[in-house]
Amino acid sequence: MRGFINRIFKLLNIGGRDWVVFLLALLLAFSTWIIHNLSLKYSVYLKVQVFAESNIEGCEQKSISGSEIMARCRTTGWRILYHRIIDDGIVEVAFPSSVFQHEGGDTYFITSDKLHEYADQLFGQNVSVEYFVTDRVDFEFQKEVFKRVPVKSVSSLSFQDQYMASSPLVMVPDSVTVYGDHMHLDALEYVTTATIAHSSIDEDFSGMIPLTQMNGMRLSVDEVHYKMEVTRYIEVKREDVPVIVKGVPAGQKVSVEPKTVDVTLYVEFPLRADPKKDLLISASYDDLKASLSGNVMLYPSSLPLGVIKYEISPVSVKVVEVKE
Q1: Are residues 268 and 315 in the same domain?
Q2: How many distinct structural domains can be found in the chain?
Q3: Which domain CATH number covers 192?
Q4: Contact of 245 with 284, CB cutoff 8 Å
Q5: 183, 209, 228 — which closes off a domain?
Q6: Are residues 35 and 71 both part of a single domain?
Q7: Whole-structure pTM value
Q8: Alpha helices in 160-279 (DSSP H)
């Protein structure tokens, strides 16, 4: 064989340094051919073993069993080579709980039509799935002790002059599922946010805020969305507004002291209605019957349109039943 190669080199007048150059050129051509072919795209079957992670209420976060997924994919030769030689074929994918269907017991499954958007996580980037061979994938999630509790906001807010909140600070979601042992969960009444801090507020605002993590417990979400509506307002003061008592039985008379109160209204600006109209301040006869002292709290039974907040002074009146 060596003699045959030598005869070829002699016939081509190749020898010494030329022989080395010839081999290097051959190696370079072969490398170029390999790189070109591996850069092309091919359709192949790829298979992975998947373990799921999700926030299914009442279950542990990670599945205790995996499931095999096979799909017809189109990708480069490099990706195929990596998948066949280097990759161990085991992946962990985070799925939203909404894609799962409950089979029964600890088993939850996902149908193949919901898997396309997770192709990058399943098979890697630059892989397009033509179709899934696997119709559905099953996972087992063990049950876990949990409790649903409200989210309590912690905030530090300051507004520009003549601006105020027109609605409470809203949390979405307003409650979360907490996982842990019975001892910790029994004592838990709510979870808190990190401090929501805004200053010089003069418009609606919103954002995301982390929840406070607690040792030995896991939350179904790590952060919540918050929002607050803000409006410009003006103050309208009403003096000597008469107090009426509602719910007085027929034939019964009552005496109120004082008979009038002062009211401060905080009204959205620009005004949508006359703030001096449709204002009624009332006391309840039922509250009088439940009171030992005869002092009854006041409330507005009618407010002008656009009132965000009100203050009544004094906040209560003395109500006495009058015998005829």
Answers
A1: yes
A2: 4
A3: 2.170.120.40
A4: yes
A5: 228
A6: no
A7: 0.66
A8: 182-186
Cβ–Cβ under 8 Å, residues 209 and 249: no
Close Cβ partners of 246 (under 8 Å, ≥ 6 residues apart): 282, 283, 284, 285, 301
Which residues have C-beta within 8 Å of that of residue 191, sequence separation ≥ 6? 149, 150, 151, 152, 176, 178, 211, 212, 214, 219
Q: Which two tokens stand for residue 149?
A: 């509790």
- Show the domain range for 101: 41-140
Q: Are residues 87 and 159 in the same domain?
A: no
Per-residue pLDDT of the chain (324 residues; tens, 9 = 90+): 556 556 655 555 555 566 566 567 667 766 666 665 666 688 889 889 999 999 888 888 899 988 999 999 888 877 777 777 766 778 999 999 999 999 988 999 999 999 988 988 888 888 888 999 999 999 999 998 999 999 999 999 999 999 999 989 999 999 999 998 888 898 899 999 999 999 999 999 999 999 999 888 999 899 999 999 999 999 999 999 999 999 999 888 899 999 999 999 999 998 888 887 888 999 999 998 898 888 999 999 888 888 999 999 999 999 998 876
| Amino acid, res. 169 | L
How far apart (Å, rounded) are the C-alpha atoms in residues 101 and 142? Answer: 15
Mark which of 89, 124, 140 sits at the end of a domain: 140
The token pair that represents 280 in the structure block: 């009624």
